[in-house]
Write a structure and sequence with these properties.
It is built from four helices and 15 strands. It is of the alpha+beta class.
Length: 279
């Protein structure tokens, strides 16, 4: 999956520090990521690449995280048009980019970038927010409001019916491949209750024997995904929610297609069932 970057080690401990010349700069705009133009591989500019044309850029860097000894910083409000050798790519470009550890860094950085962008002003009183010096937190001096990074819990559900798995496709999304039933947890719900509700809402089925499989951070939607398998409880006839899904169908394990990249929990769960893994 996208977070499996071994032998590299991701460290998200918040340790505010000044960037060095070889520290990476992460920049985003309208769900696009700013990258260096490289043949076949992704790379990000460093402060050394940029500071000749952007005086004082190091003072504007906000520490995000490190991977091994490589430090990653966010810089906002940078005029990227004056730098040669860099370009914006759609964020989904990171799903297939290599090396994988830099693709993961780019996606995770975007999650933090969007959080910082939406916390410039206090949602309670409108005062400009300030960076805390000890925690990854924005605070308001005026009313005392504190804001921590937002992570949205969601479920991925593999519904098993004997030797078949329920596969679906979304309505109106860029992603056109097979997926599993999924949805966000509502306030007051357990994860298991989310599984039952989402399955009933999207395909009109009852399920039983809900069991946890694995989790995954998914920066593309600010989400922590929790994967569950469960068994069909009752009739297999599908009542499709056509506002959410273009189709849903039972597929025998040997007929499940191996589509695209191996970065998502959804893909792993589909292939795990296909190959007779523990479900």
């Amino acid at each position: 999956m996208i977070q499996d970057i071994e032998p590299y080690k991701f460290n998200n401990q918040y340790t505010p520090q000044a960037p060095k010349e070889d520290s990476f700069v992460l920049m985003y705009e309208n769900r696009q990521v700013w990258v260096k133009e490289e043949e076949g591989n992704i790379d990000f500019p460093t402060f050394k690449d940029l500071e000749k044309q952007e005086e004082g850029i190091r003072e504007r860097g906000v520490y995000l995280f490190s991977i091994d000894d490589k430090k990653f910083f966010m810089v906002r409000d940078l005029d990227t048009t004056k730098f040669e050798g860099m370009k914006y790519e759609p964020l989904n470009y990171l799903r297939t980019a290599s090396p994988k550890y830099l693709a993961f860094a780019g996606a995770t950085g975007h999650q933090l970038y969007t959080w910082y962008q939406s916390r410039r002003y206090c949602g309670r009183c409108g005062t400009p927010m300030l960076h805390d010096g000890k925690e990854r937190m924005m605070y308001c001096e005026s009313c005392g409001n504190r804001e921590y990074p937002k992570i949205c819990p969601a479920v991925i559900v593999g519904i098993i019916n004997g030797d078949k798995l329920l596969l679906s496709k979304y309505v109106g999304r860029e992603y056109k491949r097979y997926a599993l039933i999924a949805g966000f947890t509502e306030i007051g719900e357990t994860m298991e209750e989310t599984v039952r509700r989402e399955v009933m809402e999207e395909v009109g089925l009852k399920v039983k024997n809900i069991r946890f499989y694995k989790s995954q951070p998914w920066a593309f939607t600010d989400t922590i995904l929790m994967g569950f398998y469960c068994d069909l409880d009752g009739e297999e006839g599908i009542t499709l929610d056509r506002q959410e899904l273009a189709l849903a169908e039972w597929v025998f394990r040997e007929d499940i297609p191996d589509e695209g990249e191996n970065i998502s929990l959804t893909k792993e769960m589909m292939m795990n069932f296909k190959n007779g893994g523990h479900c």
